[in-house]
Amino acid sequence: MTTLEDKILGETDHCYCSSSESDGEDSAEGETKGATASATKQPSDVSPPDPYKWEGSSTNTGPKGVVNDWQRFKQLEVERRAEQEKERIALISKLSLTCKSVLDEEKDTNDLDEMLNDEFLLEYQKKRMEEMMSQLNSLPKFGKVVDLKDTQEFLDAVDKENKSVLIVVHIYEKNAPGCNAMNGCLTVLSQEYTQVKFCRLVASVAGVSKHFKISGIPALLLYKGGALVGNFVRMSEELGTDFFAEDVESFLLEHGMLPDKTCVPPIIRSSQQDDEDSDLSLE
């Protein structure tokens, strides 16, 4: 196999002219080689004739030649039409694999609705969701704000609690703007979210810096499984100095910190409603 260097050297040899005594012979050989090379390279530059192109001439100008040319033209036309038909059929088959009719989509939707409305599947979903809800209901309940007296109680409240329990710690100072409002809001939320552990710790007891006491409180630290999952400082800039429990609840819901009660599946809400109705009937 020839390399790029061989090609370059070969072309150089073809165009090389010697300055020795046999200048005439070498030049004649060079011209002969150059002519041979150009003769061999010329066919590669010529593109093959198009079989479908009509040149407007015939090898035989008589009646037979005209008939032969006409027959050849019709044959080429038939072949071209057959090739176009094959391409059209291939395109149709390709599009038919990627497109669905409206009837097919409606049929798929109806099949999906029938599958979702199947009684056995609904019963299985109901039992599975009830198992998950029972696991959630097995968590401890608090219903109040826990006062942490020192850093050790703070560490115990975070590390020794159930790993599935969300812990909300409020770092505050009694006379700091917004801290009293936050304490009141957490008292209300602790009664609504009984499975969330709400705590509060005085900033001076927590050992935070003076700068944090001035510009960092009220602050909410959220833990779960011993890990910090939320850290919100300077809450007064977000909520102001006078706010309500609904404001704090909306803020925590927007950040995905509190469980959203509106996300309870309808199948669970219906079962809970049935249980309440049965309890009322017994009473």
From TrEMBL:
Record region (Disordered): 1-66
Residues of the signal peptide: none
Pfam families, A to Z: Phosducin
Gene Ontology BP terms: regulation of G protein-coupled receptor signaling pathway
Compositional bias of kind Basic and acidic residues: 1-14
Biased composition (Polar residues): 35-45
Residue ranges of domain Phosducin in the record: 53-111, 117-279
InterPro entries: Phosducin, Phosducin-like_reg, Phosducin_N_dom_sf, Phosducin_thioredoxin-like_dom, Thioredoxin-like_sf
Key word Disulfide bond present: no
Keyword Phosphoprotein: yes
Record keywords: Phosphoprotein
PANTHER family: PHOSDUCIN-LIKE PROTEIN
Family, per entry: Belongs to the phosducin family.
Protein name per its UniProtKB record: Phosducin domain-containing protein
